[in-house]
Automatic annotation (TrEMBL):
Residues 24-163 form the B12-binding domain. Residues 1-24 are annotated as: Disordered. Signal peptide: none annotated. PROSITE patterns: B12_BINDING (PS51332). It comes from Kitasatospora saccharophila. This is Cobalamin B12-binding domain-containing protein. It comes from the Bacteria.
Length: 166
């Protein structure tokens, strides 16, 4: 469920880039408290900005309290949770529970992807099920291309456009 401010903010916002594909969405990019990797976050930030979106990158080792406080303050259109260290499943569960415990951050869409477990393939279905049950809208395994993320962003932008047209 998209949060109610999306259409209003999308209508008012512009990326300021003449080559951008229209007004972009606001994306909060994060990782878990145990993940110290930064290259994945920088890569995703550049990719999302090239696609015309505004990105706030919280950097590595993000504690749940910082994530919740930042989401509450910035009200992004989408939270993108990326993991490289293999503990994304555990960090993601804690983050989803913390976000859903706060009524101001509960309805904001969130996706997670990357190396979510320490063993490739083993337990992947169980991790995916648990993360979806915890509140993630989409779960993307390590090696997934950019298409699912771009699809989610397009769907959010399309929903905002439909609300504006109504």
């Amino acid at each position: 469920m998209a949060h109610p401010d999306l259409a209003t903010r999308k209508a008012k916002r512009s990326t300021g880039r003449p080559d951008a594909p229209g007004p972009g969405l606001r994306v909060l990019l994060t990782t878990g408290a145990s993940d110290a990797h930064t290259w994945n976050l920088v890569h995703l930030q550049l990719f999302l900005e090239e696609a015309g979106h505004s990105v706030l990158n919280l950097g590595p080792c993000v504690p749940e309290r910082l994530l919740v406080d930042t989401v509450e303050l910035t009200r992004p259109d989408l939270i993108v949770f990326s993991s490289v260290n293999g503990h994304g499943h555990l960090d993601g569960l804690r983050a989803a529970h913390a976000l859903d415990a706060n009524p101001l951050t509960r309805g904001i869409p969130k996706v997670i992807g990357g190396r979510l477990g320490i063993t490739a393939g083993e337990g992947e279905a169980e991790r995916r099920t648990a993360l979806l049950a915890a509140g993630f809208d989409e779960v993307h395994p390590d090696g997934a291309g950019p298409e699912p993320l771009l699809g989610r962003l397009a769907a959010l932008a399309g929903a905002a456009d439909a609300r504006l047209a109504a």
